[in-house]
Amino acid sequence: MLKIEGLNVHYGGIHALRGIDVHVEKGKIVSLIGANGAGKSTTLRTIVGLERCTNGKIVYEGSEITKKTTKEIVKSGVVLVPEGRRIFPNLTVMENLILGGYSRTDTAQVQKDIQWVFELFPRLKEREWQKAGTMSGGEQQMLAVGRGLMTKPNLMMMDEPSLGLAPLIVKDIFNIIKEINKLGVTILLIEQNAKVALEISDYAYVLETGVIVLEGAGKSLLDNEDVKKAYLGA
Length: 234
Hints:
Blueprint lengths: L1 E10 L2 E11 L4 E5 L6 H8 L7 E6 L2 E2 L5 H6 L2 E4 L11 H8 L6 H14 L1 H5 L10 H13 L5 E5 L7 H16 L3 E5 L3 H7 L2 E6 L2 E6 L1 H5 L2 H7 L3
Parallel strand pairs: 3-8, 3-9, 6-7, 7-8
Antiparallel strand pairs: 1-2, 1-4, 4-5, 9-10
C-alpha cells in the first residue's frame, strides 16, 4: 500500500531522515519506534506533504505522492492524526467531526459516518454539543481519531496517540485502534509506549537519528534484547 524508498529530509543543516525505506502492507498495523528526535514525526509529516523531502520517493497505492499537496494526499485516502491532538478547541464535537469530512461531497454518507464515529466513541455522542477544548485529554484524543476517520481513510497515521493519557484511557485508545484496523483501515503508528505498540503491530521499524537500525515483526522485536534495553526498560 505504502512504499518509502531512500527518503531524505533536511531541516536547514540538520539531516533529519537519512535514506530510510519503509513498507506498509494493506490491512496491517505498522509501528515506528525510537527516541525523541529520531525522525518519527518527520516521516509521517513528509508522507502527508507537510514536509518536503530532499530526495527519495513515496509511493501510495501504486502512485507516487512525493510532490503532491497535503490536500491531494488526504483526498487519496491518507490521513494524519497529529501529536497533541490539534482539535479545534472553540468548536463543538459535532463541528470538529463535520470539518473532518470537509473535502467530501457525499453529504448523506458524511452524516452516516458521524453516527458511525459516535458508535465507536460513545463518549463523543454524550458530548456532541460540548466545546472540544473543555473535554479531558482522553476525550480529545478520541475526537482527533474520530475527526481523522471522517476523511474515510484507507491509511491512518497516528502520532503518539497515548501521549499524556492515563493508563486506563491508553488501553481504550489501543482497543479502538485495533477495532479500526479490523474494519479495513491500515495503520501507521508512532507511539512512545513501545511495548503496547509492538504488541499490536504486525511489523515495526526502529529509528535512531534518522536511520532505520532494526525492523521485523512486532512480536519478534518485543523479544529482541537490544529493543528491550533501549525502549522496554529491561
